[in-house]
UniProtKB/TrEMBL annotation:
Keyword Thylakoid: no
Entry EC number(s): 1.5.5.2
Pathway terms, separated by semicolons: Amino-acid degradation; L-proline degradation into L-glutamate; L-glutamate from L-proline: step 1/2
Keywords (A to Z) from UniProt: FAD, Flavoprotein, Nucleotide-binding, Oxidoreductase, Proline metabolism
Record has Oxidoreductase as a keyword: yes
Protein name: proline dehydrogenase
Catalytic activity: L-proline + a quinone = (S)-1-pyrroline-5-carboxylate + a quinol + H(+)
SUPFAM superfamilies reported for this sequence: FAD-linked oxidoreductase
Cofactor requirements of the protein: FAD
InterPro entries: FAD-linked_oxidoreductase-like, PRODH_bac_arc, Proline_DH_dom, Proline_oxidase
Organism of origin: Actinoalloteichus caeruleus DSM 43889
Proline dehydrogenase domain span: 44-300
Gene3D superfamilies for the chain: 3.20.20.220
Amino acid sequence: MLRSILLAAGRSPLARTVVERTPATRYVVRRFVAGDTLDDAITATTALADDGLRITLDHLGEDTTDREQADATVDAYVRLLDRLRTANLAQAAEVSLKLSAVGQFLGSDGQRIALDNARRVCEAAAAAGTTVTLDMEDHTTTDSTLEVLRELRTDWPWVGAVLQAYLRRTEADCRDLAGPGSRVRLCKGAYKEPSSVAFQSRHEVDRAYVRCLDVLMSGEGYPMVATHDPRLVAITARLAGDNNRARDSYEYQMLYGIRPEEQLRLAGEGNTMRVYLPYGDEWYGYFMRRLAERPANVGFFLRALATK
Ligand code: FAD
């Protein structure tokens, strides 16, 4: 119930105004977001890399409705990738891209605009010597995002994508994307979806995640296991053993600010551990999804409101 309310508020302009104008919000947001600027992002990336972690950077923004904003987002990614190169961070850090931020919703031409814009980001990533992973948004965008992925991979086979275990279709998508060179980030899924397309209970989603993980870990691609769930982390280690996977043939991923001590523990054991690091001033939608995932975060937010 609370999850549905928070996810609905994440799409409401009125709720956005209220949350953004609350002075204590910034304090809570900083737990999950590196900061507003490129310099903030580079500072946080450097600190994570110094701790032996890998990073995937997200320039915050989604659901763009005008062309100029989509182009500005692409420019921000190009600047980011250039800074990663000049700061010698391209080995440790890649980028994550939401197609809705680069034009996917711009009318009937949206998919083509998003593809052209994603190409510019991939060119900049190739020049920097790093990779791009396409985030996955609500289920109405899945086909379009996977189509863009297919197009991009003909030029840049290292482009990866997120699959969401809560969608009923995802086990089949995992099979399609378990081939050599394929990079798939498997997560549970963060949007409010109808039962016609998505499993609803935690238990069903967790079981679907294990089925998808099994497909990816026994396949020939590079699974990126994006979860904070201790049970799924343990199952990943078991599946790696069962499938004789070397430690460099898959990786763990978690969000910035969530279970940081576990991130360091996994990296300290010799695993590749990548932290999803968002930055920029368009943090509202991202922040509301993090609140929705865990009721305790709402308590943290309310306590900050009371004390700041
Ligand atoms: P859960 O069962 O939700 O959580 C397990 C445990 O992790 C909890 O008990 C708690 O201890 C901790 N935890 C989880 N979430 C939080 C939180 N917000 N605050 C504090 N503690 C928490 N979703 C998409 O739909 N599309 C994407 O493209 C996408 N990309 C992602 C990329 C990465 C690298 C990661 C890690 C997640 C991504 N997600 C994405 C979000 C994902 O779908 C889940 O909503 C999120 O990861 C929570 O699920 P969980 O697997 O951690 O399991």
